[in-house]
Design goal:
Strand order of the largest sheet: 1-2
Number of domains: 1
Radius of gyration: 20 Å
Number of helices: 2
Number of strands: 2
Largest sheet: 2 strands, antiparallel
Shape: elongated
Distance between the termini: 43 Å
Length: 71
Amino acid sequence: MVTQQLRKVGNSYVITVPKAEVERLGAKEGDFIASDHTLLEMKPVLNAELQAFNDRNRETLTLMMKYLKDK
């Protein structure tokens, strides 16, 4: 599955097709390509090392974020 971000261009919305996907399909400019659209909710995922750091330091990180927010 190819995931792309919807962008506004003038009065239209555009989803681009990555070059690698066009090459995989053997498509060329002017060809018609069918697509199925589903709205995705993207959530960041921490790798194991960052997740462990976050777990060990959650209280300190929370205090730091509160301090920065209040500044």
